[in-house]
Amino acid sequence: MKKLLMTFLAVCCLILALLGLDFALTASRAQPSSQKGQTLTFYNWGDYIDPSILSDFEKETGYKVNYQTFDSNEAMYTKIQQGGTNYDLAVPSDYMVAKMKKAGLLAKLDKSKLTGMDNLNKQFLNQSFDRGNQYSVPYFWGTLGILYNTKRVKGSDLTSWSSLWSDRYKNRLLLVDSARDILGMTLLSQGKSVNDQNKADLAAAQGKLSSLMPNVKAIVGDELKIYMAQGEGDLAVTYSGEAKNAIEKNSDLAYTVPEDGSNLWLDNLVIPKSAEHKQAAYALINYLNRPDVAAKNAKYIGYATANQAAYQQLPKSIQNDKAFYPKQAILDKLQVYQNFNSYWTQAYNDAFLEFKLGKS
Amino acid sequence: MKIIERSWLTFCFFLLYAPILFLVVYSFNSGEAMQGFAGFSFVHYQELWQDTRLLQIVLNTLILALSAALIATVIGTIGALAIYRTERQLLKQSLLSLNNVLLVSPDVIIGAAFLILMTALGLKLGFLTVLMAHVAFLIPIVVLMVLPKLQEMNRDLVLAASDLGAKPTEVLTKVTLPVITPGIFAGFFMALTYSLDDFAVTFFVTGNGFSTLAVEVYSRARQGVSLEINALSTIMLGLAFILVLAYYAYSQKRRGQKPTKLKEKVK
Amino acid sequence: MNKTKKRFTEAYLGIYGLWLLAFVVAPLLLLLIQSLNVPGKGFSLENYRDFFTSGPYLAMTVNSIWYAFLITVITLAISYPLAICLTKLKHRQFWLLLVILPTWINLLLKTYAFIGLLGKGGLLNQALSSMGFGHSQLLFTNGAFLLVAAYIELPFMVLPIYNALLDIDPLLPAASRDLGASSFDTLKKVIWPLSMPGVKTGVQTVFIPSLSLFMITRLIGGNKVITLGTAIEEHFLVTQNWSFGSTIGVVLIIAMALTMALTTDKKKTRKRGRK
Fold first, then answer.
1. Domain span at residue A258?
2. ipTM above 0.90, yes or no
3. Which residues, numbered 126 to 185 in chain C, qualify as contacts with chain B under a Cβ-Cβ cut-off of 8 Å?
4. Where is the protein localized (chain A) (predicted)?
5. Residue A77: per-residue pLDDT
């Protein structure tokens, strides 16, 4: 009994000590200049902004930034929709902007409060998911493509999605675990759209996809970049962001977007309707729109920036990297995902699930 | 026999610590990934030291895990006593099944269900809601660890104690609790483990002012988890190791002073 | 006397029951309602019909049970001898804590470490090739998946078994040996039966959560094994079809309750009185 009590008290003391430490750290972090006393809650993917940008922003404006993270668009959607807490600025991807807009979760942007919109590349404005950018401001963008090991695969063999079906890649291909992307890439290889909503087309795509199985070594998620960097697979279907990350770890890797087109994804800044500090949210959007800030951020993250003025400030080696800033001819063939209704989301997912289960 | 035992122990500890060692070694890598050791450096420890946001998250995580495990251990022990003392088999069985519901439900389900419940109740999401959720899903593991200890307990002990005039409170504190102490400790440590590793439930029920290490690490997966986290894990492991050593040294000393354990006395 | 005891029991039941109501029964009801509430169709059993007539989902159910079973068996095979060895050590409590310590490191991070260890150029492959086995594909195999799953579950099995073993009266094995039983016989006829409660707890704490395992199946298994946990995760986070996700959850919980009911023995009566 004594032992139990002693341990109980010891744990209590430990908790108290940690609370004290926590308090001390909060006190030391508090900005003396925060006369406005406003704290902005930024809801973003983990490690998806250069931390020094946030501290510079705090110093310059006096707002405090509370950086909270999520790991998937859908999880973030659930949190914002369900309420119980408020976020002032969030970063959904393209189709999710449409979904949030439809669900009435987004606040309409007051264009008079926005600055630096001219810096953004017109290519990424006025997209189908948000015509006229009434609700969203593009942040980073990228493509879906093929990441391959230059020592074992010839890049010139990968001009089309269909080349993945070639016998020579038997058991060498990794796929990203996403129904929309893998079926989308199959549809593209059949000359269809990534937003195809036709049962026959989807069935045909599923049929073609199942014949890819002998080539598929594994279907994985975010860890795909580690696998490719370690040489577990010789080629992989994945996003440009993942590819960039893998190439940084292993310089034998290269990334290409097949000529038959691909998906264009965009991550965007939005203000949820439930935001409590909209003023501060506008301030941060405007700050991130600044060319010098956006360029700094792009160098830290490594993704392609949607800010044209910032792009001009990037080192030439990055500007000329055709894999991540593809030439106009490729850009013209990129398609943005439309938000599917639940029927089609389910249909794509079921088709992909059957594909995955067909593997043994 | 001794050799077989020793080699099995060595094998098991090798297995347990191989990935840990791997993480620790790479925390000193001057490169950026857990692959191709580029050279020895403390650079990731420096990054960590400057990242006050992450340090605060670590503190939050520890405070949450310790408090949740502590509360869950108390309620879980009470729960185990309740199940143990229930006479009707059907009720007992139903209680046990209900107890295990949270263990078998995937985290996403628990998280989503708790989120709906808590927002329906109009609770403001934050530390308290996370604490409640953690306590809730830690209780079953404590019950599972304590219950067998109760079932093994010699019923004659309790009867003898009451016959000799001990009040129920005395029976509890002087007989029952000491006998089940190992189970309670096991429950506490396992609860701590579950709490530290939980991502999905925490994510759903947390508010804009509170985050834990697991949420932070999982949400970094898309951009790649940096070696800063390795450095952090190394430090935490080192501290835990020191704590374990200190606790052990302390309990050894106490045992030295009081050689007869209750169990031996009872025998 | 008995009255106070009864009041105590009632108080325990009250506290524990309150928790059960708020955090188990309420979410369970919510889950049940959600699983019956098909979007656009109102209340119907359609989800359940879909589940039990769909080949993929039934295959996943079988997969889940089979792999949870394998994981439990492997974990038990490693843990039982380990627990016995631990109880014989001088500083056994210290070593036991060392078994728990690795579980406090983030799971995702440990899994990444396994990817490094089991990879093509990883340590294990290097060791294998230096022993003359040559390179072998370890990742994305069932073996790797089971190894990592067992690794994660190990402490949850060791702890209850260790506790049960410590409770065995040391005189009993000694007596068994004195009476001429071999070590193996002692283990089989004395130690194993007496440690059964611990083994049962261990099996429960490993088997039940293993049914809904999902992360490892993707990270280490490369989605070669797909369990119900994966499906639930997808329905909640990808397709956002919570209704169907809840249905799978309900099926899983019923399966768990059935397993529990079947594995509890009715030997309560002949139990006590070993001392």
1. 142-264+325-357
2. no
3. 151, 154-156, 159-160, 163-164, 166-167, 169, 183
4. Periplasm
5. 95
